[in-house]
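Q: Hi! First time doing this. I have a protein sequence and I read that you can turn it into a structure. Is that right? Here it is:
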Amino acid sequence: MNLMNTKVQEIINEINDVRQQIYAAVAELSQEQMDFKPSPDVWSISEVLSHLNIVEKGLPKLYSILLKKAEDAGFKPETEGSMLNSLDYAQLEVVNQKMPAPERVLPQAGIEKAELLTALQASRQAVIDAVAPAGNYDFSEVKWAHPFLGEINFYQWILFIGKHEQRHLGQINDIRQFANFPA
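A: Yes, that's right. Below is the predicted 3D structure, encoded as structure tokens:
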């Protein structure tokens, strides 16, 4: 029996779909292709994956804090509806506007592809484990400030992962289109 919050489960399915697209985009790439930098100020695909992992690794702790805030405030029953479009206004997946990454989530260079993929699998499992205890409660009013988005709720913090990864999937695809991308 699945007791996970239906909105959380819907978001997990969404972010897992995006992650599968990332895996597919890099599946056939060599290490040379993964490490290719179109210019000194543009991340390599390896660095993009490193950044995604660093961001995602930090979120389970936040999810625990938000679940505790909800518990302290008194749980309310989960409401109907979907949260999948709740971050559309931010257009996080749009790649053509550069957003500087905070220093704490800057990528590490030189990580092997297999190690990056294993780290991404582990960070995703940690996210799933962290949000699984959400139960059938409403978390739309449980909020925490995001550095660029302002106050967003628990659901949006989970959805952020997928929107953020969509943005970087576009970046990965752009890197692969450079004329000097290794064959």
